[in-house]
Write a structure and sequence with these properties.
- It is a single chain.
- It is built from nine helices and eight strands.
- It is an alpha/beta fold and about 270 residues long.
- The protein folds into two domains: about 190 residues, P-loop containing nucleotide triphosphate hydrolases (Rossmann fold), CATH 3.40.50; about 60 residues, Ribonucleotide Reductase Protein R1, domain 1 (Orthogonal Bundle).
- Helix 1 links the parallel strand 2 and strand 3.
- The longest helix has about 35 residues.
- The N terminus and C terminus are likely disordered.
- The structure holds guanosine-5'-triphosphate, magnesium ion (MG) and zinc ion.
- Magnesium ion (MG) binds next to helix 4.
């Protein structure tokens, strides 16, 4: 069984002194606004300026529809449909790639982060890989973070496709993963049982009777705490985004802010 759902994400600085982080989402994968929100939170949390790139526009009938949807959740977020294949969107990226700027690309495996680098560099700097035809998921072609200098003079950080968002996305699915514990909890005497010192706690009973593995239960509690923490963060970031947008009268953020870092959560696979 996959342990990622229960392992504890360690915060890690993936790129120091990043000005702009391109959140890369491809237009041929499952469109998921919540995933974009979460990337947005991670980037803003680290203090970098987020820019959303919708890649593989050549594979999409109506890229503008997705641009509109993304703008609706984050009015101040710059959003650009691009296609490395059709050389579409290069001009939109130029203002972010000025000499001395440090930028990074983040997003799921297979969305085209390394392809983007090669396209902007005008030559093959990083290996890219085909996607599986069945599910459009990437294969984690890039395995380590690496810096490249672009012809424009900007420094580009290429990163491996992130796995941590699989944990975040499993928010709805995690209870299914621990359905045995959920079932036990349902038969605790008290509805709001914390499974600590309550009378008639079915979970404690199962633990002491050996029917429930303590390690599995510890995983369950860790995941529960982590998701609660992320939900809180999401609420805080949501408020901040709304406040900032209101302060600017809904106008895009002024460019040129010097940013610090991008913090992400990584879990073991
Ligand atoms: N049609 C089309 N395919 C693209 C485009 N950009 C990238 N691809 C394809 O998407 C696949 C994955 O691209 P990569 O650049 O390796 O993706 P990645 O995000 O770097 O993936 P990881 O390194 O695994 O995180 C490759 O087969 C690319 O050829 C595009 O604009 N149009
Ligand atoms: Mg790559
Ligand atoms: Zn209980």
């Amino acid at each position: 069984m996959r342990r990622a759902a229960g392992s504890r994400p360690d915060e890690q600085i993936i790129g120091a002194n990043i000005d702009t982080v391109f959140i890369v989402v491809s237009l041929n994968e499952d469109w998921n606004l919540r995933r974009i929100e979460r990337y947005l939170i991670a980037v803003q949390d680290g203090g970098a300026r987020p820019v959303l790139l919708l890649t593989k526009a050549d594979l999409c009938e109506e890229p503008e529809r997705y641009v509109r949807e993304a703008r609706a959740i984050a009015p101040e977020l710059p959003v650009f449909p691009i296609s490395a294949l059709q050389d579409l969107g290069r001009d939109a990226l130029a203002p972010f790639l000025v000499p001395g700027a440090t930028v990074g690309a983040t997003g799921s495996s297979g969305v085209g982060k390394s392809t983007l680098l090669n396209w902007l560099a005008g030559e093959s700097r990083q290996a890219v890989q085909g996607i599986r035809e069945d599910d459009a998921r990437g294969r984690h072609t890039t395995t380590h973070r690496e810096l490249f200098v672009l012809p424009s003079g900007a420094v580009w950080l290429d990163t491996p496709g992130m796995r941590e968002l699989q944990l975040w996305e499993s928010e709805d699915g995690w209870q299914a993963t621990f359905s045995d514990i959920e079932a036990l909890a349902a038969s605790c005497r008290f509805r709001d049982c914390r499974h600590e010192a309550e009378q008639g706690c079915a979970v404690r009973e199962a633990l002491s009777g050996g029917e429930l593995d303590p390690a599995r239960y510890a995983n369950y509690r860790k995941t529960e705490r982590e998701l609660a923490r992320l939900a809180q963060k999401e609420r805080r970031a949501g408020k901040r985004v709304a406040k900032e947008a209101a302060a600017r009268g809904g106008k895009p953020a002024a460019g040129g802010m010097k940013q610090k870092s991008m913090r992400v959560h990584e879990v073991e696979d």
